[in-house]
Specification:
This protein is α+β, with helices and mostly antiparallel strands. It folds into four domains: 99 residues, Zinc finger, CHC2-typedomain (DNA Primase, Chain A); 138 residues, Alpha-Beta Complex (DNA primase DNAg catalytic core, N-terminal domain); 51 residues; 149 residues, Orthogonal Bundle (DNAb Helicase, Chain A). Helices cover 54% and strands 11% of the residues. It is built from 27 helices and 18 strands.
């Protein structure tokens, strides 16, 4: 059975929950005009830019451009899925939600995943038991040597795989388990003689659990010399190495409490820090940090400190991760330990207080990156300065926070004695990597302002949607996000004028579009003549679009003239004349208003 939440129940939940009362349970709010303000819970700020509208039942932060409704807030703050957020709000409002059967396809998928999880949990139990018996003497001695306590062993469910080639295989057979499932999750393999054997042998076993505390895979370390010191489970229906983190299940409550996480490379780095009381730690499972792992962390906190090894390879791996973090709107810090030590070695030698002191001295990774590039190049020469700027500019262009970016430009300017305008010239030749970024340059254009104002009026006064639909302005809109939002509103509107900002946020799937709705709704001001405003916006958008078409035709006319193609040139001139006449018609009807 699964929770089914029909539209009427969602509406009932909304009616039972006032967004101001809900958010006030998490964020102190103060009345500010018709709205409420507080410090944003989703990014660090000193001046409140987090705004809550009681009349529209939405929120928007003008600092980090995050917005939404009651469901969105709870999903973001408590890292819940939509059904989980709806269920929690329903319980608060005393609303009973209906249950319905899962679809056959969902049942099949859930059944397959459930069977694989059970196989993993049976294997975890076997490995844990092996560690406690005579078979685990060598493994226990190794863990003792690494100062891993019994409490830590128990909390992380550590185990060991004996040297036997069929220990787990025999255990699973006795349990009546489906061996093909154990093969699917990488516990068993077929050998040359088409016989099954254990994948993990003579190893320390580290069960990998998701944040729901289900065992999804295993990491392991060889107890003797082996061609592969560490081996992880192969990817399966329930485990993806590139989007999993070791220790997240244990660290999650502390990550949420402290709103921060320490990211380490090795399992023993994590276990040693945990042993000394530093528990908001996760490990990367021995792979280069991936976008999927960063997105997983981002669900729980944006305050990340990277504590990889401080040898050359570790520093290189840390710097490689900078771009991935910036793409995910996270500005991480780097923990620098002395003498090339890793966290495991350092904390055993210097203990917890010294580690915490180093942790407090962590520097922003962007700052470390800039220092590193400058120190490895000669800024006294033009070629050296140019190399520095061109290496740093792509990373600076990925910073979404304009103030942070400006401070780093200022810092770099002082370091290499090059004026800020010179650095900015290089910086803004960089193309943003993420198409989701709403480019600042586009936002300054008159057409963009007209598109924003038109959408704002449509969101707050849905009675004009039919007017916009009839004008067929969609083709002429240029900003991709605004265009998609405009299309969505037009397609959803059925003439009954039930569209509201809250409704849009509930029904939109793309996060950037939800944020645009909350931003435009909250900053919307009263408009005296709504029909005239809409017509003015449509005229501006269409005129700007015609202007671009005319510019394109001018280019084609020039090319036809140079190629002496008289027929093409004549056709282009005719087309241009038609466009000019249309442009003139729009201009004659145009009545300027402030956009």
């Amino acid at each position: 059975m699964s929770t089914y939440i029909p539209d009427d129940k969602i509406a009932e939940i909304k009616e039972s929950c006032n967004i101001v009362h809900l958010i006030s349970e998490y964020v102190p709010l103060k009345k500010f005009g018709v709205n409420y303000r507080g410090l944003c819970p989703f990014h660090s700020e000193n001046e409140p830019s987090f705004t809550v509208s009681e009349s529209k039942q939405i929120f928007h932060c003008f600092g980090c451009n995050t917005g939404g409704n009651i469901f969105t807030f709870l999903m973001k703050f408590e890292h819940l899925s939509f059904p989980e957020a709806a269920q929690k709000l329903a319980r608060k409002g005393g609303i009973e939600l209906p249950q319905r059967e899962s679809s056959p396809a969902q049942k099949k998928l859930e059944g397959e995943k459930g069977k694989l999880l059970k196989i993993n949990e049976a294997a975890a139990s076997y490995y844990s038991n092996c560690l406690r018996t005579k078979m685990g003497e060598k493994a226990r001695a190794y863990l003792n040597k690494r100062n891993i306590s019994k409490e830590t062993i128990r909390e992380y469910g550590l185990g060991c795989a004996p040297p036997s080639w069929d220990g787990l295989l025999t255990f699973l057979k006795k349990q009546g388990a489906a061996l093909e499932l154990a093969q699917q999750v990488g516990l068993l393999k077929y050998g040359k003689k088409n016989t099954l054997y254990d994948c993990f042998r003579n190893r320390i076993i580290f069960p990998i659990s998701n944040y729901n505390k289900r065992v999804i895979g295993f990491s392991s370390r060889a107890l003797e010399e082996d061609s592969a010191k560490y081996i992880n489970s192969s990817d399966s229906l329930i485990y993806k190495k590139s989007s999993s983190l070791y220790g997240l299940n244990v660290a999650l409550p502390v990550i949420r409490t402290e709103d921060s996480v320490i990211l380490v490379e090795g399992n023993f780095d994590l276990l040693s820090l945990h042993h000394y009381g530093i528990k908001n730690v996760v490990a990367t499972l021995g792979t280069a940090l991936t976008d999927g792992q960063i997105k997983l962390l981002k669900r729980f906190t944006r305050n990340v400190t990277i504590a990889f090894d401080t040898d050359k390879a570790g520093i290189k791996a840390t710097l490689r991760s900078l771009s991935l973090f910036l793409e995910n709107e996270i500005s991480p810090k780097i923990l620098l330990l002395p003498d090339g030590l890793d966290p495991d070695s350092f904390i055993h030698r210097e203990k917890a207080d010294a580690f915490r002191k180093k942790l407090n001295q962590s520097v922003p990774l962007m700052e470390f990156f800039i220092d590193s590039v400058v120190n490895h190049n000669d800024s006294s020469t033009i070629s050296g300065s140019l190399k520095i700027i061109r290496e740093i500019a792509p990373r600076l262009s990925e910073l979404r926070d304009a103030t942070e970016r400006n401070l780093y430009i200022q810092k770099l300017s002082h370091m290499i004695q090059v004026t800020e305008p010179v650095i900015r010239t290089e910086l803004f030749t960089e193309k943003p990597k993420k198409p989701e970024a709403r480019e600042l340059l586009i936002k300054t254009s008159q057409q963009h302002k007209a598109e924003e104002l038109l959408l704002q009026v449509m969101i707050l006064h849905p009675e004009v949607i039919s007017q916009v639909k009839q004008a067929q302005v969609l083709h002429d809109c240029k900003e991709p996000h605004l265009k998609r939002l405009l299309l969505f509103i037009i397609e959803c509107f059925d003439g009954n004028q039930t569209i509201t900002p809250d409704w849009l946020i509930s029904h939109l799937e793309e996060e950037p579009l939800k944020n645009i709705v909350s931003e435009l709704s909250i900053k919307g001001s009263s408009i005296i003549d709504i029909p005239k405003t809409v017509q003015n916006c449509i005229q501006k958008i269409k005129t700007a679009s015609l202007k671009k078409e005319i510019q394109l035709l001018n280019t084609k006319i020039k090319e036809a003239e140079e190629g002496k193609d008289e027929n093409a040139m004549q056709q282009y001139l005719v087309d241009k004349q038609k466009l000019l006449e249309r442009k003139k018609e729009y201009a004659s009807d145009h009545h300027s208003i402030h956009l």
